[in-house]
TrEMBL record, chain A:
<dbReference type="InterPro" id="IPR003439">
    <property type="entry name" value="ABC_transporter-like_ATP-bd"/>
</dbReference>
<keyword id="KW-0813">Transport</keyword>
<dbReference type="GO" id="GO:0005886">
    <property type="term" value="C:plasma membrane"/>
</dbReference>
<keyword id="KW-0547">Nucleotide-binding</keyword>
<keyword id="KW-0472">Membrane</keyword>
<dbReference type="GO" id="GO:0005524">
    <property type="term" value="F:ATP binding"/>
</dbReference>
<dbReference type="Pfam" id="PF00005">
    <property type="entry name" value="ABC_tran"/>
</dbReference>
<dbReference type="InterPro" id="IPR013563">
    <property type="entry name" value="Oligopep_ABC_C"/>
</dbReference>
<dbReference type="GO" id="GO:0016887">
    <property type="term" value="F:ATP hydrolysis activity"/>
</dbReference>
TrEMBL record, chain B:
<dbReference type="InterPro" id="IPR050319">
    <property type="entry name" value="ABC_transp_ATP-bind"/>
</dbReference>
<dbReference type="InterPro" id="IPR027417">
    <property type="entry name" value="P-loop_NTPase"/>
</dbReference>
<keyword id="KW-0813">Transport</keyword>
<dbReference type="InterPro" id="IPR017871">
    <property type="entry name" value="ABC_transporter-like_CS"/>
</dbReference>
<feature type="region of interest" description="Disordered">
    <location>
        <begin position="255"/>
        <end position="274"/>
    </location>
</feature>
<dbReference type="GO" id="GO:0005524">
    <property type="term" value="F:ATP binding"/>
</dbReference>
<dbReference type="Pfam" id="PF08352">
    <property type="entry name" value="oligo_HPY"/>
</dbReference>
<dbReference type="GO" id="GO:0016887">
    <property type="term" value="F:ATP hydrolysis activity"/>
</dbReference>
<keyword id="KW-0067">ATP-binding</keyword>
Length: 355, 311
């Protein structure tokens, strides 16, 4: 498969009064054509900052990409100027935001907001752009697009606005679509419609998607691969089956165990992850998750774990995979979902820093 | 479970009455809440679930209908003394822990506000002791008492909200989407805390949410609302295993589960109100299909459902 995007050892920090916040601390991943990568993690884990860096949307200053590369089709976009980025945004990469209520311009007609992209990036004439806008609205499932195209965002419902946002994002046939919690503000029934729509459009247009969410149900629904982020780092990455059926990192266990399952009839206490995420102005020594981790080993407080490789596609950053580590049992709720996957290596292999 | 704590009878809440933009947010719902149970209320945004909660606690004056708390009507004309009595027994936890705490008050004052109003502490010392005790109950510590809300994370703020609700020793707590604004790992912490408090203090909850998996986990019974009406009410297990109303079925089929295999084979149902094909003279009401399982339906549907589910 062709690689569309490669992120190598990305580091992003923010200057604040309290000191430098290291929001992203060495993140590496790649994305293939037509693939969906889900990034999960708590608020403050750096998932949104990572995705905004890819579009270079973080305000600089106070933000700064302090290291690493972002290769889009082989070309590094980190050194690019704002002018050059304007050619990329909306055309090569586009983004769907969480809140459809605030991310559309309330003073512009919905049609005009779609046409803007087409006129800028595809040099279309006004009439052509308008016809294409109507077509796009029809594509994303908005009824009566001829009428809707002349309406303002406040005349649209939440789900409709999110559809309009998707139409804007897809107007210039981008190669990469970043969806930052696109369904969090929506009801479950509407969420299901939007997810179906996104998958459908992905099939038609062969777009790659980075899907940011904290809802593991949504991840299971849309993702091909999953990256779990904690405190600015990817702690586990693998195919969706590997993450859900053979998770290795205790943080991933914690996330999976803290969700009540619908089939589960017993009313046992939920396995909450105690405490709160660490302060990233001064990241803790060793493993950032150690303080909240009931499986933490002595070494976790001393030295940062390396990335271990469990299969061709499965990576986890935890000392538990070290040959000398004691054998631990994951929580009950996780054990239930565990199964043997054929692709797993016999033994986890250490990969070099930064994968 | 047999004892009724709260009876809601044909409750209606209409906004902008008499004007063309009148909204029937809650349009005649009837249900009971038993002592010590958790009743979950789910539905899409705009279905009237929050309005129901707010009307029960008299944040809105009901347009019609009754809310009986231990047999006494909550609504209607009340003296200040009577109102105070109700306010002590009923408390509310709000959705947004950022907006529901006064940023200019310390945590101690926020929690003790109810204690002061109801005169529950005789001395300053007793008041602070009570505050410390409450902070301890919800898993915060003493040092937090003199801080301000902005110094806390979302999960901690929600704990402050819970401590405030507990301050006056209520019997009944309405929790309006108490965990929607929190992260998954923190959600579990807050839900566990609420369950623990219920066990220890024998509280009764009305738990309003749209996250159905969490609602199923915490609730004994669940009510499903659709456009201002309660369409189905059943024990939690029963509702998930045998959803009867087509809207409930569509709602359940839309919840994404954290299991890739079930997701790949998911068949989603959509709900079209036209499926009922009610004629004008059919009487629609909640009817009991199997014990404890109520569905909002017509006489004809009732007979069909009865034939299908009741053995």
């Amino acid at each position: 498969m062709e690689k569309l995007l490669e992120v190598k050892n990305l580091e992003v920090s923010f200057q604040t009064y309290g000191g430098t916040v290291k929001a992203v601390r060495g993140v590496s991943f790649d994305l293939h054509k037509g693939e969906t990568l889900a990034i999960v993690g708590e608020s403050g884990s750096g998932k949104s900052v990572t995705s905004q860096s890819i579009m270079k949307l973080i305000p600089m200053p106070p933000g700064r990409i302090s290291g690493g590369q972002i290769l889009l089709s082989g070309e590094d976009i980190v050194p690019k100027t704002e002018k050059q980025m304007e050619k990329i945004r909306g055309k090569e990469i586009s983004m769907i935001f969480q809140d459809p209520m605030t991310s559309l311009n309330p003073t512009m007609r919905v049609g005009t907001q779609i046409m803007e992209v087409l006129i800028k990036h595809q040099n279309m004439s006004k009439t052509d752009a308008k016809n294409r806008a109507i077509e796009l609205l029809r594509l994303v499932g908005i009824p009566m697009p001829e009428k809707r195209v002349n309406q303002y965002p406040h005349e649209f419902s939440g789900g409709m606005r999110q559809r309009a946002m998707i139409a804007i994002a897809l107007a210039a046939n981008p190669k990469l679509l970043i969806a930052d919690e696109p369904t969090t503000a929506l009801d479950v029934t509407i969420q299901a419609q939007i997810l179906e729509l996104m998958k459908d459009l992905q099939n038609k247009m062969d777009t790659s998607i980075i899907f940011i969410t904290h809802d593991l149900g949504v991840v299971a629904n849309v993702a091909d691969r999953v990256a779990v982020m904690y405190a600015g780092q990817i702690v586990e990455m693998g195919t969706v089956d590997e993450i859900f059926y053979d998770p290795r990192h205790p943080y991933t266990w914690g996330l999976l165990a803290s969700m009540p399952s619908l089939e589960n009839d017993e009313k046992a206490e939920l396995a909450a992850i105690p405490g709160t995420p660490p302060d990233l102005t001064d990241p803790p020594k060793g493993d950032a998750f150690a303080a909240r981790n009931q499986y933490a080993l002595a070494i976790d407080f001393e030295e940062e774990p390396p990335m271990f490789q469990i299969s061709e596609t499965h990576f986890a950053k935890t000392w538990l995979l070290h040959p000398d580590a004691p054998k631990v049992e994951p929580p009950e709720a996780v054990k239930k979902r565990m199964r043997q996957l054929s692709s797993t290596f016999e033994k986890p292999v250490v990969v070099k820093e930064g994968k | 479970m047999a004892e009724k704590l709260l009876e809601i009878k044909n409750l209606k809440q209409h906004f902008n009455v008499g004007r063309p933009n009148m909204v029937k947010a809650v349009d005649g719902i009837t249900f009971d809440i038993y002592k010590g149970e958790t009743l979950g209320l789910v539905g899409e945004s705009g279905c009237g679930k929050s309005t129901t909660g707010r009307t029960i606690i008299r944040l809105y004056d009901a347009t019609d209908g009754q809310v009986l708390f231990e047999g006494e009507d909550v609504h209607g004309k009340k003296s200040a003394k009577e109102l105070k009595k109700f306010n002590r027994k009923m408390q509310m936890i709000f959705q947004d822990p950022y907006a529901s705490l006064n940023p200019r008050m310390t945590v101690a004052d926020i929690i003790a506000e109810g204690i002061d109003i109801h005169g529950l502490a005789k001395s300053k010392k007793e008041r602070m002791e009570r505050v410390y005790e409450l902070l301890d109950t919800v898993g915060l510590n003493k040092e937090h008492a003199n801080r301000y809300p902005h110094e806390f994370s979302g999960g901690q703020r929600q704990r402050i909200g819970i401590a405030r609700a507990l301050a006056v020793d209520p019997d009944f707590i309405i929790a309006d989407e108490p965990i929607s604004a929190l992260d998954v790992s923190i959600q579990a912490q807050v839900v566990n805390l609420m369950k623990k408090l219920q066990r220890e203090k024998g509280l009764t909850y009305l738990f309003i949410a749209h996250d159905l998996s969490m609602v199923k986990y915490i609730s004994d019974r669940i009510g499903v609302m659709y456009f201002g009406n309660l369409v189905e009410l059943a024990p939690a297990e029963d509702l998930y295993n045998n959803p009867m109303h087509p809207y409930t079925q569509s709602l359940l089929s839309a919840i994404p589960l954290p299991d890739p295999e079930t997701e790949r084979s998911r068949r989603r149902k959509s709900y079209d109100p036209a499926v009922h094909n009610y004629s004008d003279n059919e009487k629609l009401e909640m009817r009991e299909i199997t014990p404890g399982h109520f569905v909002y339906c017509s006489e004809k549907e009732y007979n069909e459902l009865k034939a299908k589910y009741a053995k």
